[in-house]
Structure formats: C-alpha cells, structure tokens
Amino acid sequence: MNRMVLKNKLGFALFLLMLASCRKEQNHENTAPTPYTISIPSYFPTILNIPADNPLTVEGIRLGRYLFYDGRLSGRTDSLMSCYTCHIQSNAFECGLYNPEYPEGHPHGLTGILTPHTMLPLINLVWNSNGYLWNGKIYPSNPAQGSRNIEDVVSMAILAPHEFNGNIEKTVAMIRSIPLYPPMFKAAFGTEEITIDRISKAIAQFIRTLISADSRFDRYLRGELQLTPPELNGYVLFTTEQGGDCFHCHGGEGNPLFTTNLFYNNGKDTCFSGPCEDTRDRFHVTGNISDIGAYRAPTLRNIEFTAPYMHDGRYKTLDEVLHFYNEGVKNTPYTNSLMHHAANGGVRLTASQLNDIKAFLFTLSDEGFITNPAFSKPDDPRLP
To answer: What would the pLDDT profile of 214-235 be if each residue is shown by its tens digit?
Structure first.
C-alpha cells in the first residue's frame, strides 16, 4: 500500500514538472517583443515620429541592425549591397567625400547610375515628421500618397535603379533563405513570416535609434564644459540676423536638431527651367511656385563628416559653403524670404567672423555617434 502511495505521489510530481515545463515552453512561444523607449536627450523635442503600427522593440531594432548591414538585402549573392554600402557610420551615415567607391562624394547603386542628388545623413530622423529625401517626397502625412515614412524609403531604395536596382520578391526570398533570420523575425514580430513590410519596419526601427546628442555643444548646454571664445562668438553669429543669420533654417538655441526639416531656395542658382530644371526639387512635389529650387535644410550636426554639401554636392568644404553664404547668394524671385541678406549677395562678414562660425560648427561633431558600437555592424560571422 505504501509503495502504491509513493508511486502515485512520484507520478503526480512528474506530471506537475511536465505541466510546468509545457507552460514555460508555451509562455516562451508567446513572449512579446520587449518595448524599447528612447531616452530623449536634454533640450530635445519630445514628439517622436514612431508610427503606431511599428513601435520600437529591442528585438525589432536588433533585426533592423542586422538587415541594415546585410549585403544580401539586394536579393543577390553575386552583387551585394546593403544600406551601409552608402550610409557609412564614420561619415555620420552618408558616403563621405573621400570614399574611393564614390568619387566626389556622389553615391551610385549596383548599376553604376549616380543618385540624382547627394546623400543626406541618417541623424536624429526620429524627430523628423516633415518628410524625407531632399524634396520631402516621402511624407508621413501626405494626403495624396497616404501616410508614408522611413519604412517606405527602405522599399524605394531596393527598387531604385540608382540604388539596389532590385526586386521586392527576390529580396524577400533571399532573406527567407538565410537560416539566421526566421528566428529573429519571430522574436521581433511574433512569427517567422518574412515580408517586405516587416523588413522595412525593422530597418526603420534601427534607423530611428541613430541619435546624435553628445557633441561638445551638447555638453556645453548641459554645463559640462565651456566653449572657447571663438566658438562662443561663432554661436552668437550663427543665431543673430545681423551675424551669419543661419538659425532660421538650421535652428540653434531652442532647436538642438540644427534643422527645421523644412525646404528652402537658399539662393544658389538663377536658372530653374529648360536645361536648368531639376524635376526633383520641392516644387515638383508640392506644385507651389514658391518651392521652385527649394531643398531640405539638412541638419548641421556632424557637418564636419558629411561633405560634400548642398543637394548636388557642389561644395566640397565648409569654407566654400561659408563663402557662398557670405558673398555668393543669388537674389531671385524664388530665393526664400528668410535669406535676409540676398540683396547684398550674402551676410558680408569678415574672415575672422567666418572662422568663428566654422569653429562653432565643429562643436557639433559627435565622435561618440560615429563610433557607437550599438550602431555598427554586428560582430557576427553569419553576416557577409
């Protein structure tokens, strides 16, 4: 009798262990992705561009980081191309001026066709709700096109002849065929299903974490260091209309993004039709005559690393840019009214004042951003 009781007790205990194991396995199967919350830096805006259908998660960001650096995203194994092929971390996630693959800092895709415009760096895009690309064609709340966001830029890059020149079906099939990815998609999205929508969402999640907020200027604002007299004078000139008059388009005090993310004709040209017409300016998105020859005001953060400058890369150095704004501005019917000194050809500062503005711009360099291991290629031999 005692043996029977003991046997029953052992059997019941074994049943409980098996039940607990099943529950544990079931709970593991149903584990939801881990929410990821962006820690908003001091003085930064609190409104973030994170779509409701693509919240940030630890697993989604990790997957997006892998995909961002995987050359098989091209859908090929003979011609690898990834987001990182052009968006290089050491150049603040653009291709850079001295990259031997891209002469003059102008990138091209697998076909060798040059991109219509030079690159915009991937910096602090989680605060941009005013559209992407130089002309803002991809716009989060564009009624004519529906809500479009960073996610749409990913699929556009795969298809564009001057970028991947790829095929959505081939890209999806390639990622599905790599054993690394189904478990990662399951961790990020709940199932192993791999679609272009999920690929785009994961990469967009990773891109939204590319935050630059620890330059010398940021540390100055936080009271951690003091800027030099030339840097401080450059900051004053940057933020005053009678100085460099830079702040209207590029922010400054009260706008640590150093861009409004808006579009301006800054007086570079006088011809906008015929052979001079650029069908990719802001006007060809909005149809608004005041947008003729207008392009995005890019962030000035990490400007030291993001040459060449302007939408067409016409200026290779910051000195060239500063001299343009000083004495080379063209006053046309389309030049933006915020270019207050256009009638005089520019702001007309002294050489010393221009050097001070340049010194200030260098305080916006964030070495931690361009070396942050969380943004770099994963150290994983499974990546090509």
So the answer is: 999 999 999 999 999 999 999 9
